[in-house]
Amino acid sequence: MNNKANEYDAVLDRIRALLEGPCDWTAAMATVSCELHHAFDSFHWTGFYRTVRPSHLQIGPYQGGHGCLDIPFEKGVCGKAATTGETQLVDDVTSFPGHIACSTSTISEIVVPVLSNGHVVAVLDVDSDLAANFDQTDRAYLELLCRELGDRFGAQAIGLIGD
Ligand code: SME
Questions:
Q1: Beta bridge partners of 122
Q2: Which residues pair with residue 48 across a beta bridge?
Q3: Domains along the chain with CATH numbers
Q4: Reduced to 3 states, what is the DSSP secondary structure of residue 99?
Q5: What percent of the chain has pLDDT over 70?
Q6: What is the C-alpha separation between 110 and 85, in angstroms, rounded?
């Protein structure tokens, strides 16, 4: 097993332990952002965009520098993940049509949807200053984490989506 997988095993265990007690969806997203962001030096923006009304994402919670506040489903890497319900793994954001540049230093990015009953309730977005920083190990662990979040908090998250 590679070092990255070991670090993911450790950080996912920490997250599960931290979320064991009373915890709502916002507390969970804040804790996940914090733990992931500090586990990997190569993550320079780590956080969530939530579906706040049909086909519309809004920022937070997150760790890192300022990000765009609102993203319609048809825009950017986050929007693509939200529209398709599938993980987007981008080695070089300059070659992704419609990429939204919140930080000029971002080169690679992974966006994983959080699903509940087939609805995208949020996306987890991680950006890196390094080219091609994300691989199938990141995808597998972040998808596992987002499945666990959707299973536990999905109903609560759907209840927060407005008209
Ligand atoms: N780059 C993303 C926007 C979010 S920020 O990078 C924090 C996108 O294209 O969807």
A1: 50, 114
A2: 124
A3: 3-159 (3.30.450.40)
A4: coil
A5: 99
A6: 13
